[in-house]
């Protein structure tokens, strides 16, 4: 792991971010006044049991979802004030995405998929950077293949390349290894790790896999819409143990409700 | 299983609605046509029931096959004798004539060009079965030459009140009349004139006007005493009749008259049903496509059903069940819409003078049955292919991530399509070039099969275009263009099927445009080549007009010659055949007639000119005789000369002299006059003078060569516009097909659209993407359609060359506009799907599996 500077810059942060669904009795609080900073140049994992709000947190930070109250910043830009057009531009220029189910355009080749966000923005890829990205995903001669001619791992590596190609200030990955076997998953995670280490890319990844979390610099644990814990330089065992403890507490809570 | 299908139907209400639309429109057209024709026939039945007596007596040959009158009449003396027949209460003589029109206060013909202008004498005879016929309801019956009664509706339309001077024009001995309106007539026991105008004179005046003053009648009604049946009375009357007279019961006469009219207007329903058929064929494309997409989208669900133990048949059945529900729903809505459409058609026809407003719409139970059968059968048949494909989904697909639909190889479709196109071309050739029975069916069927073949082959045929369009889009619109182009290429079958629906309508439009443009050019050429006169005087309705017009024109200064053209109907070899008559003295100077054998000057009384084609078919040569049966006369006419076929002014293949025609029993009224100016007299000057002669005859017009050509072109245009309007229906359905395909594609690609939004594609770019895809589909359909249509049109014109239509013109400019407009329609079709795509909630779109 590289040296951490003491003064970290936040690539994205939230202030008292609240997200609720429904109203009245059916009201569900997905995020409850969350204050979190996602540091630039770090690989952050967001973990938590189902329903803890981890996906909602990511969607709000990634300008895919709007907050009920509170604020979200990407760099210095406050998202909650932006209109759809500006959000679209922000997503296009400042944010990268990696989805669980790859989500490549099936009609385009791997290379066209990688270039898609850039060409939509009407930008030319920076030659050096683009070559570096292509080299890093090591697809070799499969660049002109269509997605359905690639394996899951290869498709996800294309998706990572697509996210990196426009040099976004932050990349969000939603369970990027959820649909992959452990070896392909490890390849993708290494790729993410390398882009943090070698290119200083900021990456935020939602996962429930302790193995994946072990690739990151920092793990945020969410439960019931709140950040309940944080762990630096995690390894598989400590994460697993932490998760187990949270699950147990949740079980107790459910049991307690039932007793009432 | 049934439950599962039902649930899946309800879960897709919007898609249901979209795909039902095609059926609704097709069925609506069928229903509208049936309701309209039933109404039409009911109303004519009502008219004829109130316009015959218990027994009707006529002289044989008093009417020709085309319903026009001859000089054969019943003498007045017979009426009294008939009144004395056993069982007869009374006998009344009727004088009737068609061809007397009412001119309204503004000098316009009431009813425009189309409905007949009937003139009758006044009498109080009851119609058959004691029904009161036309009766004076206000004012009094006309007496003397200066008075007339008119049917109340016509008087109202024309703005005449009792006491006004009415202006009438016609073909009788006097070209125009100005009697005083003294009474209004109506059918007290119900019945309508359907837009015809009826003028009533006293008997003497009617005889003077229409029967050259003879004390005679066109027919006699004999009224039965109470308790005497029509048949009994007929037998009694027959016993009294001298040879050469006919008596029929009123019921029989009404049936005959009605069936004659209905036969004549049957083409209307045939015509409308053809377009209903076209709409349904186009609609079935839409259904095939919709079901293919629905099945593809549900493939995982269907695979799951298979995995859970459903048999292939059950899967097929479940899809067909959906189709049945859809068909039933569509047919129901279509029926409702059809009634509205019938009202619309009724309005449309009232514009052409067939006014049915007096007759409530007739809705027969059989209409509903036909509509449901058509709606359900078309839907189920169209859904059968997708249903069978659905059954071929392997159960294991339920476990896979992306399910590929089993698909037949494209090259097989190409082969099948090519075979069908060849078969269609063969059928067309058979219909056009050989002597098969019912050539229209061969040509129409051939066109249909060829179009279906083109539709089958279109995924392959259209591919180069789609690829080119994708490349062009990429260049013009960058990656959004590339995505759109690739989307169109993604499922070539679907794109091509959607485009094919458009192709069918546009192919027919193009065919008609080509035939229309060629016909007009041919007419122009033929008139320029053959019309040597300076002016032509004719009746807008094609009705005959009084010969006094010709007499007056002939007396004008500056007129060198007037050539009269008349026509009548003869029976030759047992078939009715139109014959013309001209004055041979002037024919050569006004009309250029190319001769095959002999000269026009060889035409004398008792001889005939025969057109080449007819002469060849009947093996006639100069000196042979043709036997013609006409009202007053059956005799042989010697063939004086053979004319070439190319002259549009000689519209019947037999030409007699004016004298021959008159002696054969046709009234001396002219159909056309061709006027030659003296040398040095300007045509414009002459036209002004002739115009003055015909000023009080609104039905008679004077045209120079350009005017004549314009008039003939105008007739084509009217028909073309009507056909275009009806084909518009098929185009609307096809357009809905584009909307449907795009909307379903967007739903199908929800996740992809969500991802595009997530990586920064703006709503606008998404809309552009959908729009571009729509334009590709539409333009592909337009190009295929225009291509096929030009081939059809040129083939038809090739076959029609023998009919005097010598020029073939492809209206390139017009067709370019068609393609352009199709592109614009594509943009229009994309509005709704594009908005839908742009509005997709990104998060939900990504979450959709």
Layout: helices, strands, pairs:
The complex is a heterodimer of chains A (260) and B (849).
Chain A: E1 10-21, E2 28-39, E3 43-47, H1 54-61, E4 69-74, E5 77-78, H2 84-94, E6 95-98, H3 110-120, H4 127-137, H5 152-165, E7 170-174, H6 182-199, E8 203-206, H7 210-213, E9 218-223, E10 226-232, H8 236-259
Chain B: H1 2-10, H2 13-49, E1 55-59, E2 74-75, H3 76-83, E3 88-94, E4 96-98, E5 100-103, E6 117-121, E7 134-139, E8 147-151, H4 152-158, E9 167-170, E10 176-177, E11 180-187, E12 197-201, H5 203-210, E13 216-217, E14 219-224, H6 230-240, E15 245-249, H7 250-297, H8 299-307, H9 312-351, H10 365-391, H11 410-433, H12 439-461, H13 463-490, H14 492-530, E16 535-539, E17 545-546, H15 547-554, E18 559-572, E19 575-582, H16 584-590, E20 595-597, E21 607-611, H17 612-617, E22 625-630, E23 633-643, E24 654-657, H18 658-663, E25 669-670, E26 672-677, H19 683-693, E27 700-703, H20 705-748, H21 750-758, H22 763-800, H23 812-829, H24 831-839, H25 842-847
Parallel strand pairs in B: 6-12, 8-11, 19-24, 21-23
Antiparallel strand pairs in B: 1-14, 1-15, 2-13, 3-14, 4-6, 5-9, 7-11, 8-12, 9-10, 16-26, 16-27, 17-25, 18-19, 18-26, 20-23, 21-24, 22-23
Helix pairs in contact in B: 1-9, 2-7, 2-9, 2-10, 2-20, 7-8, 7-10, 7-14, 7-20, 9-10, 11-12, 12-14, 13-22, 14-20, 14-22, 20-22, 20-24, 22-23, 22-24
From the N-terminal CA to the C-terminal CA of chain A, the straight-line distance is: 48 Å
Anisotropy-based shape of chain B: globular
CATH class label of chain A? Alpha Beta
The Rg value of chain A, from CA coordinates, equals: 19 Å
Count the beta strands of chain A: 10
Mean pLDDT of chain A, nearest integer? 86
| Sequence stretches where pLDDT stays below 50 over 5 or more residues of chain A | 1-5
String of helices and strands of chain A? EEEHEEHEHHHEHEHEEH
Fraction of residues in H or I helices of chain A: 25-40%
What count of domains describes the coordinates of chain A? 1
Strand order of the largest sheet of chain A: 6-7-8-3-9-10
Fourth-tier CATH superfamily name of chain A: P-loop containing nucleotide triphosphate hydrolases
What is the residue-mean pLDDT of chain B, rounded to a whole number? 83
């Amino acid at each position: 792991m590289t040296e951490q500077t003491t003064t970290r810059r936040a690539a994205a942060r939230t202030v008292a971010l609240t997200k609720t669904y429904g109203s009245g009795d059916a009201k569900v609080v997905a995020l409850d006044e969350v204050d979190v900073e996602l540091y630039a140049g770090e690989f952050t994992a967001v973990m938590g049991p189902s329903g803890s709000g981890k996906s909602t947190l990511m969607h709000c930070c990634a300008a895919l979802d709007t907050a009920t109250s509170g604020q979200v910043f990407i760099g210095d830009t406050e998202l909650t004030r932006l209109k759809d057009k500006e959000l679209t531009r922000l997503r296009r220029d400042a944010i990268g995405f990696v989805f669980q189910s790859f989500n490549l355009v099936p009609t385009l080749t791997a290379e066209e998929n990688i270039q898609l966000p850039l060409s939509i923005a009407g930008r030319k890829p920076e030659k050096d950077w683009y070559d570096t990205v292509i080299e890093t995903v090591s697809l070799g001669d499969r660049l002109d293949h269509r997605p359905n001619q690639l394996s899951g791992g290869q498709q996800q590596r294309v998706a990572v390349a697509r996210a990196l190609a426009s040099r976004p200030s932050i990349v969000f990955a939603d369970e990027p290894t959820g649909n992959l076997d452990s070896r392909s998953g490890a390849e993708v995670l290494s790729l993410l790790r390398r882009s943090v280490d070698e290119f200083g890319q900021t990456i935020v990844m939602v996962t429930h896999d302790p193995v994946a979390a072990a690739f990151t610099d920092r793990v945020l644990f969410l439960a019931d819409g709140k950040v309940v814990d944080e762990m630096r330089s995690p390894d598989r065992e400590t994460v697993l143990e932490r998760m187990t403890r949270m699950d147990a507490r949740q079980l107790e809570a459910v049991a307690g409700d039932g007793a009432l | 299983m049934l439950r599962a299908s039902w649930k899946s139907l309800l879960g897709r209400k919007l898609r249901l609605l979209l795909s039902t639309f095609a059926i609704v429109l097709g069925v609506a057209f069928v229903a509208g046509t049936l309701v309209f024709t039933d109404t039409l026939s009911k109303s004519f039945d009502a008219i004829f029931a109130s316009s015959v007596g218990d027994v009707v007596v006529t002289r044989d040959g008093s009417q020709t096959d085309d319903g026009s009158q001859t000089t054969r009449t019943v003498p007045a003396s017979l009426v009294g004798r008939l009144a004395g027949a056993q069982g007869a209460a009374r006998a009344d003589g009727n004088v009737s004539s068609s061809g007397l029109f009412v001119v309204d206060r503004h000098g316009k013909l009431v009813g425009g060009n189309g409905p007949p202008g009937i003139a009758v004498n006044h009498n109080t005879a009851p119609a058959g079965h004691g029904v009161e016929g036309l009766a004076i309801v206000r004012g009094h019956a006309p007496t003397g030459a200066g008075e007339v009664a008119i049917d109340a509706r016509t008087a109202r339309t024309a703005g005449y009140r009792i006491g006004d001077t009415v202006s009438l024009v016609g073909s009788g001995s006097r070209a125009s009349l100005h009697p005083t309106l003294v009474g209004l007539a109506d059918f007290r026991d119900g019945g309508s004139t359907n837009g015809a105008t009826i003028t009533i004179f006293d008997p003497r005046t009617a005889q003077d006007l229409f029967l050259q003053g003879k004390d005679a009648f066109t027919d006699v009604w004999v009224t039965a005493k109470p308790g005497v049946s029509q048949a009994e009375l007929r037998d009694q009357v027959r016993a009294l009749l001298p040879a050469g007279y006919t008596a029929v019961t009123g019921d029989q006469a009404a049936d005959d008259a009605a069936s004659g009219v209905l036969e004549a207007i049957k083409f209307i329903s045939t015509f409308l049903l053809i377009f209903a058929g076209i709409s349904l064929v186009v609609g079935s494309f839409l259904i095939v496509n919709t079901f293919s997409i629905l099945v593809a989208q549900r493939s995982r669900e269907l695979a799951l059903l298979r995995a859970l133990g459903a048999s292939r048949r059950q899967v097929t059945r479940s899809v067909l069940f959906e189709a049945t529900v859809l068909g039933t729903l569509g047919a129901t809505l279509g029926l409702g819409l059809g009634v509205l459409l019938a009202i619309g058609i009724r309005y449309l026809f009232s514009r052409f003078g067939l006014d049915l407003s007096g007759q409530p719409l007739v809705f027969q139970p059989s209409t509903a049955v036909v509509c449901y059968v058509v709606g359900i059968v078309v839907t189920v048949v169209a859904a059968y292919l997708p249903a069978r494909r659905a059954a071929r989904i392997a159960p294991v697909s339920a476990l896979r991530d992306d399910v590929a639909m089993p698909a037949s190889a494209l090259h097989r479709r190409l082969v099948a399509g090519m075979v069908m196109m060849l078969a269609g071309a063969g059928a067309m050739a058979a219909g056009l070039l050989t002597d098969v029975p019912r050539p229209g069916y061969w040509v129409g069927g051939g066109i249909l099969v060829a179009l279906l073949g083109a539709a089958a082959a279109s995924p392959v045929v259209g591919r180069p275009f789609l690829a080119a369009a994708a490349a062009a889009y990429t260049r013009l619109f960058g990656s959004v263009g590339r995505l759109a182009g690739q989307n169109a290429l993604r499922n070539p079958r679907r794109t091509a099927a959607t485009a094919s629906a458009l192709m069918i309508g546009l192919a027919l439009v193009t065919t008609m445009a080509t035939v229309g443009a060629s016909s007009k050019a041919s007419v122009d050429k033929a008139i320029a080549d053959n019309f040597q006169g300076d002016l032509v005087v004719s009746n807008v309705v094609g009705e005959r007009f009084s010969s006094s017009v010709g007499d007056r024109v002939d007396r004008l200064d500056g007129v060198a010659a007037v050539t009269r053209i008349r026509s009548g109907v003869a029976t030759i070899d047992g078939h009715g055949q139109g014959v013309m008559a001209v004055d041979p003295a002037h024919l050569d100077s006004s009309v250029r007639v190319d001769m095959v054998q002999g000269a026009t000057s060889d035409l004398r009384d008792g001889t005939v000119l025969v057109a080449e084609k007819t002469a060849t078919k009947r093996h006639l040569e100069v000196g042979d005789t043709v036997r013609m049966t006409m009202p007053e006369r059956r005799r042989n006419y010697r063939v004086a000369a053979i004319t070439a076929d190319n002259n549009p002014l000689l519209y019947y293949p037999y030409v007699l002299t004016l004298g021959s025609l008159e002696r054969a029993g046709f009234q001396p009224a002219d159909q056309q006059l061709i006027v030659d100016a003296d040398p040095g007299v300007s045509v414009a000057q002459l036209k002004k003078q002739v115009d003055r002669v015909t000023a009080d005859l609104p039905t008679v017009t004077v045209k120079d060569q350009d005017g004549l050509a314009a008039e003939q072109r105008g007739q084509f245009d009217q028909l073309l516009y009507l056909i275009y309007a009806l084909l518009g229906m098929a185009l609307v359905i096809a357009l809905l097909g584009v909307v449907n395909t795009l909307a379903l594609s967007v739903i199908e690609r929800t996740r992809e659209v969500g991802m595009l939004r997530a990586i920064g594609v703006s709503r606008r770019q998404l809309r552009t993407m959908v729009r571009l895809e729509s334009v590709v589909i539409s333009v592909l359909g337009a190009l295929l359609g225009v291509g096929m249509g030009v081939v059809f049109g040129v083939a038809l014109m090739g076959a029609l060359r023998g009919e005097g239509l010598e020029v073939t013109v492809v209206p390139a400019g017009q067709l370019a506009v068609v393609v352009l407009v199709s592109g614009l329609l594509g943009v229009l079709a994309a509005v709704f799907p594009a908005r839908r795509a742009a509005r997709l909630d990104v998060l939900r779109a990504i979450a959709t599996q």
